[in-house]
Amino acid sequence: MEILEEKVKVLVEALPYIKKFTGKTFVIKFGGSIMENEEAKAAFIEDIVLMKLIGINLIIIHGGGPKISENLKDLGIESNFINGLRVTNRETMKVVEMVLAGYINKEIVFKINDQGVKAIGISGKDGGFIRARKKYIYNEDGKVDLGFVGEVEEIKVEFLEDLIEKGYIPVVAPTGFDKDGNSYNINADYVASSISFTLKAEKLILLTDVEGLYRDINDKSTFISQLTKGEARQLISTGIINGGMLPKIECCISAIENGTKNIHMIDGRKKHCLLLEIFTDTGIGTMIREGA
User: Fold this and answer.
1) 163 and 118 Cβ atoms separated by less than 8 Å
2) For 215, which of 137, 179, 191, 222 could close a Cys bridge (C-beta 3.0–4.6 Å)?
3) Are strands 169-173 and 119-123 parallel, antiparallel or unpaired?
4) pLDDT for the residue 227
5) Reduced to 3 states, what is the DSSP secondary structure of residue 171?
6) CATH number, domain at 115?
């Protein structure tokens, strides 16, 4: 009887959130090492299906760095990174497209469709969806050319809206194209951020392989459950946010400034992390919101 009462309590707690978010749009970035965890991946698909069935519009953007590196290694192609970005020549770009838009994208789409919910896989070339431009980085040696690494120039929002209106979950491989037809490898966090603010999404959710943000990563008591974009800027300026977390938070700030209402960073390794974050009072990750 106690177990049944606990289940009822969970449903009652979730009810106001279900009412609040039905008909809203969530953009979810899923990737990295989480994709290698079969248990977490299966729970992620279940969460997606449930959220869609209660009327939330979803767009999924996935990464695939480890699988790309694995395929490049099998082909005898070395992987090189500068500032966390993969140096991508034409040969590497062919592998990136094959892995992202082919293998990984279609696997996610199949698993969602297999649960009775409509999903469709797309890349930046489909429907002229993601127009990109070449990305350069700058260091002490000056301007660095990364090859076919891009950044988002334009999102064709009508294409996404049409798919959502027809009841599909778009599953997006983060590649784009330029006016000359060249393909570009784009960081999935930046694609997710661009899509979320172009759609003025209710939420941008980044599934990571950490619990969220800490003021001191070595002190679990310093976990940050909520902060404003202004507080996030302060953490960057003081060096508390650095390394691989820095570009993620910069994406979050950009998304908030351009119209995304709330951003959640949650631990994708935890089973049913999406449901725990969105439909419970306490949540499990870090939420970033508008504010000085």
Assistant:
1) no
2) 222
3) parallel
4) 87
5) strand
6) 3.40.1160.10
